[in-house]
User: What shape does this take?
Amino acid sequence: CAAAGAKPPVFSNSWSSDQIQAIQINQGGITQPDGSVCCPAQSPECKVQTAFQPAIVYNWFEGKKNAMKNPDGSGIVSDFTAMKEYQVTAAGDCQSYCPIPAGNTIGGGAFIFVNATNAGKVMYNGRSATKWTWAQKIPIFNVTMETSDFYVDDSGSSPVPLAEIDEITPFGQKIGQQNMTFVSFVPGVPDAKHFTVNNAAKCPQNSQCNSNNGGDDDGGNGRRLAAAGEGVQYRLERYMGSGFMRVVIDN
Assistant: This one.
């Protein structure tokens, strides 16, 4: 049974985590018996998109820095003091940067929405877990844009995040699902080497910085879809050519 009035756990503000993102956007596709999704030949406007991305994420809350590294060591370093996100090579050499919009701050360990509902104990991938659920809505219209399930292993002395599963449902229409799996989660300040940005002062600005017109910022909890009506097309986009995918609205 779920504990009445229970508050969701807050994890360490600084941490390191191996993560896997899996995302699927389905606009008009038909699910086959084997679970695959295909577009009918007579539906030229149908669009099915998928993505799978492993990464190592480092969060240094006190230092106001976050790094998302690909398996080859390249990735994106976000500096919330300089208010820039740098695309770097495995050696830390800066390739380009994008400004971080004013008002954005580094996230800590509050992965779960503060008013999430405790759905009780469940089994997740063979592990006993507590399930937390919440929904993102447009208050004026009371329309659900996205629903989220978050699974936590709280059997030990400290809670461990397992996964977040988001159902993307703009204006009540389900168009896809995004899963973020925490393969590992280590509390504590990561090694400073993971946030190295060489030649930051001479790094050029990325030409695609302002291309996103609304979508998922892949920070773990800032997922958002711009308000749009029926017929809107969505696509998957890799931010600055590196890192996790996000959902954006086609112009």
